[in-house]
## 1
Amino acid sequence: MSVDNYVDEKAFRDCVEKAAKILRAEELVAFPTETVYGLGANGLSTRAVQKIFTAKGRPSDNPLILHIGSLAQLGPLLREPISVYAEKLIEHFWPGPLTLIFPASDRVPSVVTGGLDTVAVRMPAHRLAREIIAKAGVPIAAPSANRSGKPSPTRAEHVREDLDGRVAAIIDGGSTGYGLESTVVDVSNREASPRILRPGGITEEGIEETLGVSISMEGSERKKDNVRAPGMKYRHYSPDTDVELVEGSSAVMQARIDEARMHGKRAAAAITSDRADKISADRILVLGDGTDLQTISSHLYDHLRAVDKMDVDVLFVQTFTETGLGKAIMNRLYKAANP
């Protein structure tokens, strides 16, 4: 099934109806969101959700995010009323690329929570995703629609590369917007300030401004058990090609490339446009304008996937300042370089 920029409203509606029907039948549908493509299943059905883990090759103790289409779907998923902080975050950032961690009700299957007492919930802003969820009539469990550990898919063709034949339907809604997964914030403790568990399109600075308090960011080296958010425990975002991060000038990058070549390796470089004429490598991937982190984030996974088709041994990637969206970009790059 394919939707082309929603030009044909009838085709759009037909696509929504077919996707919802498949989800109600407890099968899998890959669909676009404003972050990355998601692999959706009926989030209240253990049988349906287990198919996600099988299709992705995903460890079963890795929690999933439940996607809702309206606030009416939130209450039944929660064990207790939400906090004032959660209310503010919902008001300012939903629908959008923000996932919140709440105490889970008994209605949420343990296969969704990874055996934890909390549940991750998001209300996507993407029209197609919201319409599918509404039509299905249930919250949709939907991790990224890729084989576990690989770079997340931002286009339908990425999904086909990883999951063709493993899912009932792949809906082509074009390229996603943010290109990185949602920010995950833990609001499960009503007596404590929220914590960012995973950086994403909603920045730490934006959250602090909204709440009027300082918040903590979960460290990348925390103990990897009982993690409350997806994308924290296992190998993520990694191409098959080795990835090495390079902090510093173009000269530093060139020295690393030259050293790799001296050892017989073919090297690619992922750099911003201002460095494109300063670097010599076997392949060059231009990430975008260094001042436009939104564009860089939206194409990051595309580049990480493309390098595996370039007949190179190593990809050198320049680093970014870890403020604003740069924090989310570097979070993904650190994981890609340290599988």
Note: Residues 9-24 form the longest helix (16 residues).
## 2
Amino acid sequence: MNEEARSQPTKILYVEDDPSSVTLVRRVLENEGYQVIAVEDGLSAIEVTERERPDLILMDINISGLDGYEVTTKIRNIPELSAIPIVAVTAATLKGDREQALIAGCNGYIPKPIDVDRFPYQVRAFLLGMREEVESLEEKTEYLIEYSRKLVDRLEKKIRELQKANEELQRIDKMKTDFVVLAGHELRTPLTVIYGYTQLLLDNPDIPGSEDEEGAPRYLIAQVAHATRRLSQVVEDILNVSLIDADRLELAQGPVSLAPLVQNTIQNITSLGPERNLTFEVEGLEDLPPVVGDGQRLRQALWNVISNAMKYTPNGGRITISGRQVENAIHLK
């Protein structure tokens, strides 16, 4: 088992978003027999570290999302990963950058551009346990305070960005709701006109044929009327979902008798589609007291449930709708 573990190449994770730097480091280290895994951003670095458990992490500082300092601090606070050596390999070479990397938890610091001749020896030294330190306690305290301040500043910046993004999402969501409501109202007008004229035509005794005679003028007009009613129902459902989502649905509360409401809904649904010889049984509704609710919204809810039941019931099948009172509630099924 130990011999097998020793035969595995040393695994190095390189966190870098510059492809040319990745290519160079990979070429140098793979020539030395190391296995190199490269990722581009901080979150991916944390995920890959947890999954792959590398022997060494080479960390660029200026990466997207979480920067190299924050990724290092995060890894240092994961107990099973805290012992992995992390070395900052970065072009951040201003005064204090090395100390900031060490304060964040890095074992060492290698400035870019790397020296390709020295680089393998530097990597080997950190794999063998070398660790750089901030020289004085006073200097270490100073950089620790500075690092804490930078973390708070970045946290504040991220919170402001999230708040701004949330406000934008709310604005877009309101625009979507307003558009759906406007489109629904605009669709209602022509649908009402179409349905009105089809009813006038159906009331005209001069229109030949009957509504049950397939292909006859009266049958075709009746089909247009039925389809228009169904489309109006779909538009109404879309409007309701949009208003519910926006918390803008207004309810007209009042007493509602369930028995006639259910019967009327069944009649309306069955009149719209082809004859399927379905049998509806309504049980226990006549004995129920009126409920307080919005009759129109209850009708829509019943319409959706009953039409869904019809969809999954074979021709000639039976659909049973029953109701009972349980304490202060009415249960329909």
Note: The chain has three domains: 2-134, 170-245, 254-332.
## 3
Amino acid sequence: DPELAADLAELRMLRADLSEADWLTDPRAIALGDRVRQRQWASTKAHHVEEHASLASVQAHLDDETAVLSYVFGSAGLSCVVVTSADATLVDLPEWADARAALAGLRADLDMAATVRTGPMADVVRASLSRRLSELSRVLVDRPLARTDARRLVITSPGILAGVPWSMLPALVGRPFTLAASASRWVRSTVAPPQSVGFAAGPRVARGAEEIETAATAWPDARRLIAREATVASVSELAAEVDLLHVAAHGRHSSDNPLFSGLELSDGVLFGHDSDHIAPVPRIVILSACEVGRSSVRWGEEAVGMTRAWLHAERMTMRGTGAMWSMSCPKSTPSE
């Protein structure tokens, strides 16, 4: 759709010219954003409707060392369905209000912990973050884990839990798990080593090029886009040609308009909206970028953001469920 591409290109220019606080309130940006949403709503069609996997189907895909923890949120509160190869149990989480209170200040604690590394405040910040993570672990994970001895987990969660850093919860530290879009998507996913790999580093990222070059050494035929080469068009083209895409770039989540969250590339921002026009998308996407792992919750407990946009595009092309990682900041090398 050339008109849609032109609208997104103009939005990229507005995003570059206006301040962070003003660009989505600019009258022209508002008009373009509305037009983009309307055009994508009208032009994007589902090629396939996935049927929900049955309990028996999910259990058939589990071995003795793997269990599913599927969190369910409704008017009665939060519960977790624990599914093993032999059993399924509904576990009530009566202290959900405590977890919700801990979530309220979690982002601020994470931001401060990433910023304040030394000095007298560092211990205070780390203690506050540790208390929140321990409380979330106690309320969300301890009861479900008491119902299974499984070593590996598959976790699915509603939008209300979109901000939970599961790997940081004490009960899950060191435990292998998959955070799946849904149990049905996990059942239908395919696991195969990537055959083609692409890397891209956006501008103004300290050690971004070093990160890309270091990671690419494991893949002899890996393609690289660095600095000026990493444009919106070139990264989109690369994404459509590889099984695994690794991008190190500055990222920004737009809470008011989540699908205008994006990655800063050499000629502008790659928006969440752009992912709908990448076909096919990679099976595995690694976003080494600030904020793009965040989501905003909309009606129906749907989490919307950059990662969800990529997963949505993947579903529309009817490929196996891809994996998605988002790191907080691309400043360190893998060895660190």
Note: The longest strand covers residues 66-74.
## 4
Amino acid sequence: MANNTPITSSELGTLWMTYSKNKLLLQMLDYFIEKEKDKDAKDIMSYYYNSNKKLTNEIEQIFKSEGAAIPIAFTSNDVHKDAPPLWDNYFDILFLRLMMKLSLGSNALHEGMSYRSDIVDFYKRCIDLPKETYDKCNRFLLKKGILARPPYVSMPKEAEFIEQKTYMKGIKLFGNKRTLNTVEIAHIYNVLESNVMGTQLMTGFAQAAKESEVRDYFIEGKELAKKIVSNITQVMQESDIQAPSTWAGRATDSTAPPFSDKMMMFCSTLLSSFALGANAIGTSLSLRSDLPKKLMEIAIDTYQFASKGGQLMIKHNWLEEPPQMEDRNELTKSKK
């Protein structure tokens, strides 16, 4: 049934972003599914691939019905399925899990920016799919002994209130830093886990990139991720918390590119944007004053890295422009 109410600028923008992200995932998964030998892993990716393809086609139909141009995004030309595996076993599921975390947040945000009933319903289904897939990835990785869990803690015996003003400074009565609380652990562990994964992703991208300046950019990204892991690990170790580690998903010795430089650059900037959002939430919920400072330093480094990536994509004509509002000043000038 046709909808007589046109989509708003917000809905057009969020659908445009969702479409680009979905096309990236579809092309990358096409390669991962081809290379994966584990049946359960292949089934998880195939189910998500087929379901996500239907949702992506729905966006195309909305664009067509609204008379909006369909983004170019990514095609099979951006994937080289004959390239050997760039990462070890189960990197694909670790990567899919990370992307599901990103999708859960972005789709929920986009639902809140939607007004037309069919767009709201669309984003509800967009939330359901990554929720289901994230759960499948978690269960698979835990069963394989790959996914490290956050640290355990003794359960509180009673509710307590903060009595010392120094709690906010992270300092105890006699000058030692207080241990992290569980809210702080949750967010910095998330930052740490994402950057452990990011280190492996950037390592593989750096090995496979064709353009020298793109290769240098990914090497810079790898070093940034390693720096973040080191800084967060130090904070956790001060509270006697062991940092996560996994034997799976490391880059192989292959240098053959499975993906185009354009697609790898877009993936990198997408994950950098996700990291900025995660850091902002962690900063706002930290009650120890040294943590927001550290997370803000990470955010600045991440922003500068992402900004540099955007400039590099513009230089190579890889950065597709989102739909623009009409420039009324230019339209007025054209009448003179």
Note: Confidence is low (pLDDT under 50) at residues 171-175.
